[in-house]
Amino acid sequence: MKFQTVTGLVPVETVGLADSHAHVWIAPQDGVAPDVRIELHDFDRIEAGLRDFCALGGTLLVDCQPGGAGRDTTQLAALSRATGLFITSTTGFHRRIYYPPDDWLWSATEDEAVAYFVEELIIGTRESGGTIRATTIKIGYDDTIEGQTRVLMEAVAEAARQTGALVLFHTEAGRNVEALPPFFAERGVSPSRLYLCHVDKRPDVGLHRELAQAGVLLGYDTFARPKYNPEQNVWKLLPALVADGLGEHIAICLDLAFPEQWEQYGGGPGLRFLPTQVLPRLRADGIEEATIARLTGGNIARYLVHQSHQE
Ligand SMILES: [Zn+2]
Description:
By secondary structure, this protein is of the alpha/beta class. The chain has helices at about 45-55, 75-85, 110-120, 145-165, 180-185, 205-215, 235-245, 275-285, 290-305, and strands at about 1-5, 10, 15-20, 60-65, 85-95, 135-140, 165-170, 195, 215-220, 250. It has nine helices and ten strands. The strands form two sheets. The protein has an eight-stranded parallel sheet. It has a two-stranded antiparallel ribbon with strand order 1-2. Helix 1 crosses helix 2 and helix 3 (about 110-120) crosses helix 4 (about 145-165). The longest helix has 17 residues, at about 145-165. Bound molecules: zinc ion (ZN).
């Protein structure tokens, strides 16, 4: 089984340590409000951060910035070549606040959006002139399925059905994620094609168990975020799900979108937090090595494989 990266197909077995929800590059966006504008585009600093991660065993980064919201797959490919790290990119859409007011996607028809998402997955991204393929389809989900978000979600469902690609969700701290599996199931997209991110900000064990049992992949990313009280929340939630035998449905991430979260920009914790803090803690908590390998790379690699394109 292989999955697409910005530099070509990669066998699932070659993935070791991964950040399953990463931000590698965010180009400046004209027309986006200053309070929500994120810029991450200093090639040398980013390259240094990725090299650090590689030196500590890092192998894969799942970039989560969709086209039109600061993604630049040509930079992702250059960084992948410079460091040897595998990087995947995403089509789809983020929350509307991350786009200039006149962005075409926010008045696109469902058919236009389907054509765009499928083109980026099977031919290549717009900014690469169709030479670099996206791997996942992102949805910026606030908590309701309405308006243009609904049109775009219908389009994502159709694109996922056509390509077998994984649908990656930004959720607002897990709000109303219950609505997602039924919406997609009604449109022929299995829960095993859904990857719900930021859901450990809503550490309801019963809900997580139910979603995992349905086949969904859950993205946990608050390990280095004191604001979300990781000791009381994610570090209780994660072992509970693993104890239930649901460790194949969790992907560990850091979601370092802001430059101040990168050591190379003078901040922290940096990608090294994963190998130097999270890995030893998983071991200290008594989780088996094979499960740790899945949580920190194996699971995301398997879900990234397009289900209709297995090799
Ligand atoms: Zn993110």
